Amino acid sequence: MFNIPHLDLPSLESISGVVQLPGSKSISNRVLLLCALSPGVSVVHDLLDSDDTQVMLDALRALGCTIVPSTHDDRRLEISGMDLARLKSLSSKSAEPLALFLGNAGTAMRPLTAALTALGVPCTLSGVTRMHERPIEDLVDALRQLGAHIDYLQNEGFPPLQIMPSRMGIDSPVRVRGDVSSQFLTALLLALPLLSDQGEIVVEVVGELISKPYVLITLRLLAQFGVHIERTDWQRFTIPKGSSYRTPGEIYIEADASSASYFIAAGALSRGALPLKIEGLGKNSIQGDIEFVAAARAMGAQIEEGPNALVVTPSLQPLKGIDLDCNHIPDAAMTLAVMALFASSPTTLRNIGSWRVKETDRIEAMAHECTQLGARVTTGDDWIEIHPIPLGQWRAASIHTYDDHRVAMCFALASLNPDHQTVRILEPRCVGKTFPDFFETLFSLAQTPTQRIPVICIDGPTASGKGTLASLVAKRLGYGYLDSGALYRISAWHAQSLGMALTLEHQTRIAQSVSELSLQFEGERILVNGHEVSELIRSEAVGMAASQVSALPEVRQALFELQRSSRRLPGLVADGRDMGSVIFPDAELKIYLTADAATRAKRRHKQLISKGIPAKMEDLLTDLQARDARDTERTVAPLKPAAGAMLLDNAQLSIEETVEKVLAQWQSKQAF
Is 55 helix (H, G, I), strand (E, B) or coil? Predict the structure, then answer.
């Protein structure tokens, strides 16, 4: 997951391949609570690993659930139901309330509020600032009809809440508004079976129920856990007397249909010829957002549905604008808003008032960010109209995500724009709420001309700090990192381990042996043929040998393509001696470090001493001067600044100051 201030998405050309989506958030958190309320052990497969599910798991552990992950499958959990007798022992008014923090997870806050009220567990429920702005009054009012004791700790009608034990009884029908959020009704349907020993319970919906498909998910999952609720239209729900939860033993979580919408759209917007296959979701899905398929088809997307997969073929014609009531797909409808930017006519999405009480006011958020890209947008209380962006009028834009995962994922699709404009996603980490690996997944499926992938080259003499600088810049930008020096060190170390002299006579054998190596770079770890060599290749002796081997033309050629192939999405920071002059001459930014030999010798001396390696300053200085002379005088790719390189004397700068200078120079080249 990209835990960085922003992530720049280069212009993408096409999306194809096979993608396995994470589990549904809506199903995952419902299943977790149902497992907790069911006696015995439930085995859950393919659970979504995200911020929202983690806060639910943390809450359930605090409530006494035993949750055991599988040792061989990180998507399998064994969950033992809560000890309800123990929880009831906490119901004394003198008991210290249990404090539960639920982040910004509405699928945890609403159902837990109802369930813990029904169980009489004294507790406080809080979250992040935005959660404290999301209404919960309609649910609290419904629970108070049954005698619940729930207090608002800050603002009336909003979390945080305090729940105190109370004598709850059946006062049917229980009435709850349905036109703000379907999560209020879902919360009641999950919790009230706990009170059904007193008799039949009826829940009536006041007003039109929105997001009906999400309620249908709830009803289907309740049935799997032994509670069968009778539904009269969408206005009346009857929980039979004596309803009780029982575990189904094992349960599988469907792939998330809302997450599928981004890849359905990406496949349709792709300008390539190959299809995109989305696995783990099909026409038999219990999720309402599977209806996004029909909406995308109405816009012109070509989609084949199988029982457990969708195949999207790039559209040959421009997408068409639509006018659609989106009450049944409120989350996935956001993806339609971005697809509308690519259409041939305006798109109007209606009945989306629930967008305003989600992680942010999504109507205003989508309108503002579409405008940033160059679109004309109008909005109302529960609708949005988006005009497509004409060819040639797309703008590079920095997208504010409002800490809303769906905003971030939707606008990643704008990187497929036909004008090849870059899109910056601010605070990309917010996708962790439902799809932590979203951007990595997108990049694994994306293709684009190599020249569109940005490269920053950081060159300089030995011990100039270019490796440390490059790795930190790469980390700040979320880019890949190429340590070219490591490649030459590996070549020298490998040749010497085979008894080869580092001379012109042996260069063909060295080049051939290096080309056959299996190399893996995992952060600071380097593996050669499966064995870690990180420390082995960092010795002074290997460093000197690397300088020798780098002067061998055939070895350099063997490593040339290997280095160029590291230019992958979303971008690359490469360090070495000829990255900007030979390997990536078209790099957008070239930095050449110019710290003098004496300063570099002091740095190297301090570094070696800190590692317990004896070293003499005079010897280090002599060695560096000799290397500089050898590197600058060699006939093959001599050490010198690349054309257009920025000379940066970092002799008097800290590494943090140097990083900031490079990032400032990079920012100055962006179109935002």
Answer: helix
